[in-house]
Amino acid sequence: MHVFVTGGTGTIGSAVVAELLGNGHTVLALARSDSSEQTLKDAGAEVLRGGISDLDVLRAGAAQADGVISLAFGRDYSSPDVLAAAIAEESAAMATLGAALVGSDRPIVTVSGTPWVPGRASTEADPVPTDGPVGERGRSANTLLSLASRGVRATAVRMPRTVHNEGKGGFAGLLTEQARRTGVAGYPGDGTQRWPAVHALDAAVLFRLALESAPAGTAWHAVADEGDAVRDIATVVGRRLNLPVRPVPEENFGPFGPIFAMDQPASSAYTREALGWQPSHPGLLEDLENLRP
């Protein structure tokens, strides 16, 4: 396939671009800067200049492609308003890309988050939340999946709270950044809450599998580690950075505080069975050993 990819230089996106190119696909990737364009060209992708707010550019990219993988999302989470703006931008982009594929039977794979279910690990059958600070992302994913009835092979890969590579990325990465800023490897609550995780290279394989063969209207879990205790994550971070480890108020983590404090394990048993996905890269705690002071 000739695949249009947005967000192709991020932690997940760069791995997805490499995975597609390494498995016989060609890639047209969105680039909003000269540095992003060069990175993508060096990887072997064609480039379309623009950002995810350039809806006409997104339509042009989708028109040229046999399939789409939508990964772009803002990187500034400094306040609830900034986060809400990033989610709104992503929602408009997803709606535009989905509409461009109506009636074509072409695939589009979007990124979503694993849901949380009190008392157990969430599964692919559980609905994503549509309320709370990131509820709009769930609503947008559901809207895209509903295009299955309009001739779009729309699927969603639900990502855990931490997508990591070389000890960086996701919620664990944010916790690490906070530790570097404050001098404390802190965690909210008692630290027994669990975060699921996946290595970016394993996640990239699942995006390719979903693009190639997942049925329309389906959702899949890119979860390798069902749930690592946040205290265990902070302990590794503290040891690697030579910092003390202790609980801190969830407010210290800004808009992510309430989410950081939740117990949110997730399973990928159905995804592994149905799509043959088998994670093979290091788990989160092992990967965090790559951190340097």
How is the secondary structure organized here?
Blueprint: E1 2-6, H1 11-21, E2 26-31, H2 34-43, E3 46-49, H3 55-63, E4 67-70, H4 80-100, E5 107-113, H5 135-145, E6 153-159, E7 162-164, H6 170-182, E8 185-187, E9 194-199, H7 200-213, E10 218-221, E11 225-229, H8 230-241, E12 245-247, H9 257-260, H10 269-275, H11 284-287
Parallel strand pairs: 1-2, 1-4, 2-3, 4-5, 5-6, 6-10, 7-9, 8-12
Antiparallel strand pairs: 9-11
Helix pairs in contact: 1-7, 3-4, 4-5, 6-8
Main sheet: which strands, in order across?
Answer: 3-2-1-4-5-6-10
At CATH level 3, the topology of the largest domain is: Rossmann fold
CATH superfamily of the largest domain: NAD(P)-binding Rossmann-like Domain
- Counted up, domains total 2
Mean pLDDT: 93
The SS-based structural class is alpha/beta
Number of H/I helices: 11
Q: Strand-residue fraction?
A: 15-25%
* CATH class term of the largest domain: Alpha Beta
Outline of the structure:
It comes from Amycolatopsis cynarae. With about 290 residues, the chain is of the alpha/beta class. It contains 11 helices and 12 strands.
Explain this structure to me?
Residues 3-215 form the NAD-dependent epimerase/dehydratase domain. Pfam families: Epimerase. This protein is an alpha/beta fold and 293 residues long. It folds into two domains: 2-162 and 199-225, Rossmann fold (3-Layer(aba) Sandwich), CATH 3.40.50.720; 166-195 and 226-267 and 280-290, Alpha-Beta Complex (UDP-galactose 4-epimerase, domain 1). The protein contains eleven helices and twelve strands. A seven-stranded parallel sheet has the order 3-2-1-4-5-6-10, sandwiched between helices. β2, α2 and β3 (46-49) form a beta-alpha-beta unit. It is globular, with a radius of gyration of 18 Å. It starts with a strand and ends in a 6-residue tail after the last helix. 46% of the residues are buried.
